[in-house]
């Protein structure tokens, strides 16, 4: 007898409504796992999958974390998975603070059908869904199946399907999802490859190629530029950045993000935040070079 194992997404959070993760009002699914390791990450506990080390179990004040029991046929190491009991969890985030693995025990696994049933409950209140992360595209096969299912469901196909991504996906990967995807939001954090390598831990060639590919396919909804004064280089490389934008359709939104300390850990906490005045200067300089709509940050924390 053969069993087909259904694909499951590893999900760190589902937000029923958001008006900042793509056009309109959206249900957002944040997937666990990322292929970048940004110094400035404001969600570092979404980077890695839990390795079941157990360091967070003892400290949970409500007993929401435990080790699974060995069942018949399992070795102890197979069974010793860290189990999260959502009903007991108060979301104090002590486990997240303790974790030295940039991970999170509070993840859930969903099949496509389970996600569809969550979407069905919200369908009359949303204009679409956005898959975010971590990095959404590290779970690309699940996204392709989910988007396909939405687009072939008579009751859901009016919903738009977006991906919020760091852009580190090959052209082949994008081609798999583009037929079912309405749009993507892509982050660009540095222009010079050396700066990108230092800040993110990977080169930026694939990111820039993704921006161009999505624009040519008519699927680039938003380009996000992160301004970290004195650390990133999007201001000192403004002519090159402007040239990239000039080659994009004029209806692509360019969102300017200001580096802040919220959620950040490690050396990035010692960096200066981007002030409103610094962002205004960056906005001015870029807007004088491109006709696109540049959106400023809503808040500075
Ligand atoms: S969440 Fe972190 S500390 Fe807790 S078991 Fe997983 S890897 Fe270990
Ligand atoms: S967030 Fe939940 S699981 Fe984590 S330590 Fe707090 S109560 Fe325990």
UniProtKB/TrEMBL annotation:
CDD domains tied to this protein: Radical_SAM (cd01335)
Zinc-finger recorded as keyword: no
Residues in 4Fe-4S ferredoxin-type domain copies: 43-70, 80-110
Cofactor: [4Fe-4S] cluster
PROSITE patterns, per the entry: 4FE4S_FER_1 (PS00198), 4FE4S_FER_2 (PS51379), RADICAL_ACTIVATING (PS01087), RADICAL_SAM (PS51918)
Keyword Oxidoreductase set for record: yes
Domain Radical SAM core: 20-293
GO molecular function: 4 iron, 4 sulfur cluster binding; metal ion binding; oxidoreductase activity
One Pfam assignment: Radical_SAM
Alphabetical UniProt keywords: 4Fe-4S, Iron, Iron-sulfur, Metal-binding, Oxidoreductase, S-adenosyl-L-methionine
Stretch forming the signal peptide: none
Xref: Gene3D superfamilies: 3.30.70.20, Aldolase class I
Family as reported in the entry's similarity comment: Belongs to the organic radical-activating enzymes family.
NCBIfam families named in the record: activase_YjjW
Protein name: YjjW family glycine radical enzyme activase
């Amino acid at each position: 007898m053969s069993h087909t194992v259904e694909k499951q997404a590893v999900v760190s959070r589902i937000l029923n409504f958001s008006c900042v993760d793509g056009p309109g009002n959206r249900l957002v699914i944040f997937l666990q796992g990322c292929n970048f390791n940004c110094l400035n990450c404001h969600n570092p506990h979404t980077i890695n999958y839990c390795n079941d080390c157990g360091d967070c179990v003892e400290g949970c004040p409500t007993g929401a974390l435990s080790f699974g029991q060995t069942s018949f046929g399992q070795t102890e190491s197979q069974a010793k998975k860290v189990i999260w009991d959502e009903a007991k969890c108060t979301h104090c985030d002590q486990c997240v603070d303790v974790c030295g693995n940039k991970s999170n025990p509070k993840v859930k696994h969903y099949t496509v059908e389970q996600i569809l049933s969550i979407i069905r409950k919200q369908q009359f209140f949303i204009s679409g869904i956005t898959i975010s992360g971590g990095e959404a595209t590290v779970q690309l096969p699940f996204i392709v199946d989910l988007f396909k299912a939405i687009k072939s469901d008579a009751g859901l196909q009016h919903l738009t399907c977006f991906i919020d991504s760091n852009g580190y996906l090959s052209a082949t990967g994008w081609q798999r999802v583009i037929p079912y995807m309405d749009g993507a939001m892509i982050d660009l954090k540095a222009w010079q490859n050396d700066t990108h390598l230092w800040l993110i831990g990977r080169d930026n060639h694939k990111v820039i190629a993704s921006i161009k590919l999505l624009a040519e396919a008519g699927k680039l909804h938003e380009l996000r530029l992160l301004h970290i004064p004195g650390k990133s280089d999007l201001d000192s490389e403004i002519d090159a950045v402007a040239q990239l934008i000039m080659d994009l359709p004029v209806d692509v939104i360019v969102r300017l993000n200001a580096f802040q300390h919220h959620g950040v850990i490690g050396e990035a906490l010692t960096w200066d935040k981007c002030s409103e005045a610094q962002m205004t200067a960056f906005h001015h300089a870029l807007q004088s070079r491109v006709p696109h709509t540049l959106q400023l940050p809503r808040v500075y924390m």
